[in-house]
Specification:
This protein has 118 residues and is an all-alpha fold. It is built from 5 helices and no strands.
Length: 118
């Protein structure tokens, strides 16, 4: 779908039908998913087998959103977070290593909070 225009990508990218063959993206309002066996659950939780396990970790609705946003931005991938603070934390963790130290001045945090409140 790389040759499609922005509006078409906004509607069609990241979309995959389920076995129900719906025309638009399904919204999965569940917190957990069913496993065929305890072994399958163990293998999914250990990341040996792909598949949904728990909505906070994997969710088809979020997956479709990430693929759509990546396509619209022309990116290879996208990571959606549940809050702005989670996004900030993920950004910082992507930039620092285990031996690094992060120093945040309280004044800067207050200024950032004031800036974002407007």
């Amino acid at each position: 779908m790389k040759d499609l225009k922005f509006d078409t990508k906004a509607i069609r990218e990241g979309y995959r039908t389920t076995q129900e063959q719906e025309h638009s993206e399904a919204i999965f309002l569940t917190s957990s998913f069913v496993f065929d066996s305890a072994e399958q659950a163990a293998s999914r939780f250990s990341k040996e087998e792909p598949g949904n396990i728990y909505a906070r970790f994997t969710n088809p609705t979020v997956d479709a959103f990430e693929k759509k946003l990546a396509a619209l931005e022309g990116a290879q991938a996208c990571v959606a977070t549940s809050s702005g603070m989670a996004a900030i934390f993920a950004s910082i963790m992507a930039l620092v290593e285990s031996s690094n130290r992060v120093i945040i001045l309280l004044l800067r945090v207050i200024c950032l909070a004031l800036l974002l409140s407007y």
